[in-house]
Write a structure and sequence with these properties.
The chain is α/β, with parallel strands linked by helices. Helices cover 38% and strands 17% of the residues.
């Protein structure tokens, strides 16, 4: 199976040995960040630094004039990725014989939420999630669609992987996070992800729901959860048990439709901007009501829109099966494994994990993350890939 490693431009720029080191892993491709959220990242082999702090979500290349005069626009990176950091890294990686695809983070942007509070998801209690742009809002959808097209189709890139192209919810790694005191479960996470901004209230209205009444119902449904009672029924059954079948399924229908139409529009915009043969993949979860960096999708629908999916497998490879069952010829189903031991990854089982993934229908591998892994982790990955 073809393998690709995730990489940041700052892993490569200023380190002349990085491209050859990544190529020596045995990967054919790199998925290189072009638009990324705020982060603090280790660079264990870089000759000039060991820690990079990306202070806010940014594009890692010079944005073009399509943003002139627009209220919502991408932000340039600071000194962690100056100038055309993506282009510089892409050229070096291409020279090392690697195929470069862009890695584009979309509906996850804390700076956007801080500077434009009205763009954020608002929960049933009125709390705002500044890291989570509401994908129902027309201006936000236009911003995300144009960002997808611009950031995906960078010079030298042969394809793209679009992350967070869907709903984002409560789950968010935040500085000194203190949100784990109550176990919300799958159902509680869904209810806390429901948005009640003006655009979503209007959307619920189109589906026959009153926004105020729905918010009150969500708050009532969550009361047992705050008291420590996690629904015994898992998955969607737990949501229906807490909220009631009619409300639960109507909110899901609205949210599924909102995400699907955004995904269709964004992928179409990327294809219109891209050269022929440009590959478009989405980071995706096969359960449509799930939220986050790998937003939930309908597998049949998304494989009719994009060229394939990148599927998180850190919790097991079962997430691959719903996509593989669609049997769409030529579709990419990339199994994404964390190979950084210090971040919960298991490079030592990569060979076995890859074999299991192949048996479940995966066609490619994604390895998170070549820049963050230790030397020992990289050597283990190299050995695993050599045995393919």
């Amino acid at each position: 199976m073809k393998a690709s490693a995730f990489v940041y431009p700052w892993d490569v720029n200023g380190d002349p040995e990085a491209p050859a080191r990544i190529a020596a892993l045995g990967v054919e491709q790199v998925t290189l960040a072009a638009a990324y959220h705020s982060t603090r990242a280790l660079t264990p082999r870089h000759p000039r630094h060991r820690i990079v702090t990306a202070e806010h979500a940014a594009v890692l290349y010079p944005a073009d004039d399509r943003w002139d005069g627009r209220e919502l626009h991408p932000y340039p990176a600071g000194d962690w990725a100056p100038g055309d950091a993506f282009g510089e890294a892409a050229a070096a990686l291409t020279d090392a014989g690697l195929e470069v695809h862009t890695w584009v983070v979309l509906a996850h942007n804390s700076r956007l939420g801080a500077e434009h509070p009205g763009t954020s998801v608002v929960n049933a209690y009125g709390d705002r999630y500044p890291w989570a742009p509401c994908i129902a809002q027309p201006a936000t959808r236009a911003y995300l669609t144009d960002l997808a097209a611009e950031a995906a189709v960078r010079p030298g890139a042969r394809g793209t992987e679009l992350e967070s192209l869907g709903w984002y919810g409560l789950q968010h790694l935040h500085a000194h996070d203190k949100t784990g005191g109550v176990g919300l479960g799958d159902a509680g996470q869904y209810l806390m992800a429901l948005c009640f901004c003006p655009a979503c209230r209007e959307g619920y209205g189109r589906h026959g729901l009153d926004g105020d009444e729905l918010a009150a119902a969500v708050r009532t449904a969550l009361e047992p959860v705050w008291q420590g009672v996690t629904p015994s029924d898992g998955g969607w059954t737990g949501v229906e048990k807490l909220l009631g079948e009619t409300l639960a399924n109507t909110t899901r229908a609205y949210r599924d439709e909102t995400a699907r139409t955004l995904q269709e529009t964004a992928v179409r915009a990327v294809r219109e901007a891209a050269p022929e043969g440009f590959q478009v993949l989405l980071h995706a979860d096969p359960v449509s009501y799930h939220v986050g960096a790998n937003p939930g999708v309908d597998p049949a629908h998304i494989l009719s829109v994009a060229d394939g999916v990148v599927v998180p497998c850190a919790g097991g490879t079962g997430t691959l099966t719903p996509f593989a069952r669609q049997g769409r010829e030529g579709a990419v189903i990339a199994a994404n494994f964390t190979v950084v031991s210090g971040m919960g990854g298991s490079p030592g089982t990569l060979a076995a994990d890859a074999s299991e993934a192949r048996g479940l229908g995966a066609t490619e591998l994604r390895l998170y993350h070549a820049g963050l892994a230790s030397d020992d982790d990289l050597e283990t990955v190299r050995s695993a890939l050599a045995g393919r």
